[in-house]
Structure formats: structure tokens, C-alpha cells
Specification:
single chain, 193 residues, Mitochondrial carrier fold, 8 helices, ion transport
């Protein structure tokens, strides 16, 4: 049941966040013509239609599932190594969380590169003998390879890893802290009965 809940949560989360990601990435592009979020939303809607906000949805899902799988497996593996008794140990949670996020981010960077291309429809890629819009993950993978070869799949890997390290370290340490507090209170409550 938790696995099914996680899948549904990811589907809904990504459905809500994908349009926001498209707008964010287009506004972050070098020489972006957009100065306000509303300008970007309006232009994308009028010029490309509603589908432009979901062009990378399947790629986003395809990226998030492996990211989370690698992230959780790495965290659990490292916890077995650093904290085999599974006690509350903030330093092991921070270290394991940081490393798990770094590994997952690095491993899924090619998917993130393709998602970014789908979201931004970057003109460099579009001007390299490719006609129309890039649609779908297979098209994005081909385009990235045509434009930059294998190394293009890992552009931005350092930034992605650096971004994930504190994020996952904080998330795991906060999760483990609250798990510890709740468990401790439940044990105290049971002992007081």
C-alpha cells in the first residue's frame, strides 16, 4: 500500500508542478524574453497551447521514479553501514541523506537534461537540423545526443548534485528526528498506562 500511495502522490505532485517547472525554466534561460510569470504563461499558452506545459510530464515521472528508488536504496544501504543498530543518530542521517541525494541526482541527470530540453525547447537544439517542437523523451534523448554527444547528457551534473546534497540531508535528518520524537512519546505514553 505505501508503494501505491507513493506512486499516486508522485503522479499528482508532478501533474501540479510540471507547468510551474516549465515557466521557471523558461524564465531562467539566458536572454529569456519573459520578465513576469504571467507573461511567460500567456505566451506559452498562446504560442504552443496547453500541451506545452505537459510536454515533459512523462519524462518528469520517468525521472522521479528512478531518482526516488536510487535515493531510498542508497540511504538504506548507507544506514546499514553507518548506523546498523538503527538508532537516532543525526550525523549518520545527515551523511547518508546527503550521499543518497548526490548519487540519485548524478544517476538521473540525463533524464533531467532531457526534461529541461522538453520544457525550454532551447533554440540551439531547435536550430540544429530539427524541425518543429521536440516532443517526448525519445525525441529529447536523440536531440541531446545530436547536439552534444554523450557528454551533453551530464551537463549540469555538478550543480544538480550540489543542489541535492543539502536538500536530502536536511529532509532525512528532519524525518528521522520526528520519527524519533513520535516513537519516544508513544513509548512514554505506553509506559505511563
Amino acid at each position: 500500500m505505501p508503494g501505491a500511495a507513493g506512486c499516486v502522490a508522485t503522479l499528482l505532485h508532478d501533474a501540479a508542478m510540471n507547468p510551474a517547472e516549465v515557466v521557471k525554466q523558461r524564465m531562467q534561460m539566458y536572454n529569456s524574453p519573459y520578465h513576469r510569470v504571467t507573461d511567460c504563461v500567456r505566451a506559452v499558452w498562446q504560442n504552443e497551447g496547453a500541451g506545452a506545459f505537459y510536454r515533459s510530464y512523462t519524462t518528469q515521472l520517468t525521472m522521479n521514479v528512478p531518482f526516488q528508488a536510487i535515493h531510498f536504496m542508497t540511504y538504506e544501504f548507507l544506514q546499514e553501514h553507518f548506523n546498523p543498530q538503527r538508532r537516532y543518530n543525526p550525523s549518520s542521517h545527515v551523511l547518508s541523506g546527503a550521499c543518497a541525494g548526490a548519487v540519485a541526482a548524478a544517476a538521473t541527470t540525463p533524464l533531467d537534461v532531457c526534461k529541461t530540453l522538453l520544457n525550454t525547447q532551447e533554440s540551439l537544439a531547435l536550430n540544429s537540423n530539427i524541425t518543429g517542437h521536440i516532443t517526448g523523451m525519445a525525441s529529447a534523448f536523440r536531440t541531446v545526443y545530436q547536439v552534444g554527444g554523450v557528454t551533453a547528457y551530464f551537463r549540469g551534473v555538478q550543480a544538480r548534485v550540489i543542489y541535492q546534497i543539502p536538500s536530502t540531508a536536511i529532509a532525512w535528518s528532519v524525518y528521522e528526528f520526528f520519527k524519533y520524537l513520535i516513537t519516544k512519546r508513544q513509548e512514554e505514553w505506553r509506559a505511563g498506562k
